Amino acid sequence: MYRPVTRSLWSITVFVCLCLGGCDSLSPVSPQTPLTLPPELSIEEHALKSMPPVDESRTFVPVEGTQDEILSKHQDERSKRFSDHPLPPEPTISLGGNKLTAATNETNGQVSVQVSRNGAPIYTVQVGDSSTTASLRGLWADDNHWILEVAHAARKFSLSNEIDFDVWGKVIQDGISLNKQHGYQEAFGFQLMKGKSFYFFKKRGQLGISYNGVTIPLGYTQVPHYRCCSAAALNPRSAENMVAFFAQRGGTWYYVEIGVFE
Asked: Which of 17, 85, 128, 207 shows the greatest Cβ crowding within 10 Å of its Cβ?
């Protein structure tokens, strides 16, 4: 099913169909807590008939309509996409007349990320074990603040003694962890969307988004991210004014586009 988000002034209620296909009856996702959205932000969900794609094609089969119909709607906005690998080894931003740089350091398999101002270190965060996931995810200037996203990795061993990693994201503003400040289990996918801060967060096992300081719980149980190789096909794809991603709520997978659309 196609699940657009409708809104009245600043308040919206997100709806889901009670059946798959030809639904005439709608009920709120969370009747007790209607969602609040800034008026310029749109969320469009498209329920899928099966699991999300498993390869680089990102081919999906929606319950309603076709993939081509869905993708054509915001094709121009998606084309304003950031690079898959936008970060130089040491991303640099300008803030308040100063130059801020972030860099990754590794010692004995332990990784840290450091932020420097005009060459002088001002903040260091430990991000765990060295892994195939890039620890430094980005550095941004947002108004008078600097924002850092890092991926923390913890090595684990399977019963067959194979090495794997638990990886989770952290978003840090001016040296303060938003994970700790807001009680997030994870925060990831930071970007400036139409010049305003946007990121995903996980709290109490469910995922939502934050946009320009407004917290919007969406009830997702999974949003694939930080994946590598062929599995990276499921990672969110960011553009200047939007992000496209796959998400699971309950037993249903969705293709979702969130953005500030003209």
From this structure: 207
